[in-house]
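REQUEST ID: PR-0412
SUBMITTED BY: lab tech R.K.
PRIORITY: routine
TASK: structure prediction, single protein chain
INPUT:
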Amino acid sequence: MSINGLWLRRIVRWLLVALAIYVIGWLFWSARSALLPFTIGVILAYFLLPLVNSLERFIPRWASILTVYLGSLLIVVAFFAYLVPPLLQQASQIIRSFPELEYFEKQAETLLAEYQNMLASLPAEVSEPIRDSVDQGVEQVAQTIQENMTSYVQGIGAFLFNSVFQVITTLIFLLGFFLVPFWLFYVLLDQRAGSEALNRLIPHRARTDFWSIVLITDRVLINYIRGQLILGFVVGLAAGTGLLALNMFGMEIPYVLFLAVFAGITELIPVIGPIIGAIPAIILGLFDSYTTALAVTLLYVAIQQLENQILVPRIIGESVNIHPAILMVLLVVFSQVFGLLGAILCAPAAAAARDVFIYIYGRLNDTPLPAGILPGVKPVPIETSSTVNPRQLAESGADEQPLLEHAPDEHKAAAADETDEQPLLEHTPDGQRSIKKQIPSESSAEK
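STATUS: complete
OUTPUT:
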């Protein structure tokens, strides 16, 4: 075949791939609202898969999935039975404790009367300019409120229309959630078969790079998310215990459970989360006394210092390794674009993007790095490469990850015969390691 014909076949083949990706992406994007339950199912599968794989060493895989299902169901039932009711009760009490509208109206009338009396006591040449400027400012504020009121009414109308439309789509949404447990069961059951099917779809030369990028992302996400959940639990528990201790010493700090849960949830937001979590407790402390507010402030500062000095280095370690100044800018950008979810996931997303960029940049150098070199990974002995589970290493925070767990099992073992026998790991001069041979040869596959 001529060179022109070969290039033509390649161009047509890649155009076909691009067309298939476009069509599939368009279908998924068009049905994105109906696919939300399955998106949640994918997230659940990502978190439940390590538990299922761990239990599979003792019981069959289908039994391990059902065991994880049962444990998750018990946790959810206990959460809604014992934690949600008091939380809702305390939240409603906080809302009812706010002053009503009549209180603010009376305060405004009192301030207006004092203002009129003050103007009346001043000379005319002084009071007139003040009255004119104030009246002009009030008129501008009223005009602004009137202009915005139209947009508010239009927004309410659009909201009502969208609500009616959402009632129609709710049935489809609930149907999707009804199917998710069964769909998730088959996803967890056939995870290895799915990985091998995906691997066969990837071009031979790109497989190692693909699974390397998957492991880079997985390593950052699993370490960060697991660490943040642990930190949130510990911070919430410490805040609740500390507030209860302050109450035992005679201080009046209400809604301890709500404040503890709020502190644990806001801990998920990097940098500013602990500050946000402390504000309601300090405000409630001010209603008691300045001493109580100071004690609450010192309590949250102590919890934050304990977290930064002891917990964060041991639980999260260097999984993110982004300077706080840069992280604050990323927090603003991600929260502006993606909302609350962007604020929570900005740190792992930025860290994963950084490591993927470093990996791809190294592969595209004038002297490309071998496929499989992961940023920040230390070399491990070759004889342990077939027995170490990289997902377990990622979950334990270790830097040594010799192989890619997501790759099918047939690509994790070396061939037995002399012609195919090559070490899976090749140590590079700079202290890193690469996956020299991940895909067995055709001869070994036939054997």
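NOTES: The radius of gyration is 30 Å.
REVIEWED BY: pending
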